[in-house]
């Protein structure tokens, strides 16, 4: 299914953002399946790759998972060869999480076609429009992160559907 351009005749920006998020979630599931991980483990691995040297606590804070869940998640990533625990340079009681370069490199080929297509799409716009698109997508990411935190931290915003 092709997402229509952001024209009022096709839908509001929030509808396009939701469609984008849905397609991104489906892509995440397909990528996770291709490398033999759960979606949660795959997303956590992505955070570790983006922020090498983060602690388990930092990963738990970003994912909103409990310390026990994070320990199990890191154990699975370590067994699969994607992550190594290394001693923290300043805190002997802590470890940092480091991606294993050759394992990450081996899965980068899955991302390459999409990355190339995104770069080509970006290059098809004039520089002024590129800046606007980058700013809008960055702001959308911020909004998604804020809304996620709001849902996790404020039980009053959740409907009683459980």
TrEMBL record:
SUPFAM superfamilies found in the cross-reference section: Winged helix' DNA-binding domain
InterPro entries registered for this protein in UniProt: HTH_MarR-typ, MarR/SlyA-like, WH-like_DNA-bd_sf, WH_DNA-bd_sf
Top-level division of the source organism's lineage: Bacteria
Boundaries of every HTH marR-type domain copy: 6-142
Signal sequence region: none
Cited Pfam families: MarR
Protein name: HTH-type transcriptional regulator YcgE
Organism: Chitinimonas prasina
The encoding gene: ycgE
């Amino acid at each position: 299914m092709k997402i229509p351009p952001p024209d009022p005749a096709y839908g509001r920006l929030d509808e396009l953002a939701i469609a984008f998020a849905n397609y991104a979630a489906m892509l995440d599931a397909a990528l996770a399946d291709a490398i033999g991980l759960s979606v949660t483990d795959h997303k956590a691995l992505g955070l570790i790759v983006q922020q090498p040297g983060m602690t388990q606590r930092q990963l738990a804070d970003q994912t909103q998972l409990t310390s026990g869940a994070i320990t199990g998640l890191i154990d699975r990533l370590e067994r699969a060869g994607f992550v190594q625990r290394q001693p923290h340079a300043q805190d002997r009681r802590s470890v940092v999480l480091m991606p294993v370069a050759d394992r990450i490199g081996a899965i980068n080929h899955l991302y390459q076609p999409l990355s190339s297509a995104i770069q080509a799409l970006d290059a098809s716009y004039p520089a002024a429009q590129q800046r606007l698109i980058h700013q809008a997508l960055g702001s959308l990411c911020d909004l998604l992160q804020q809304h996620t935190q709001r849902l996790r931290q404020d039980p009053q915003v959740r409907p009683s559907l459980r």
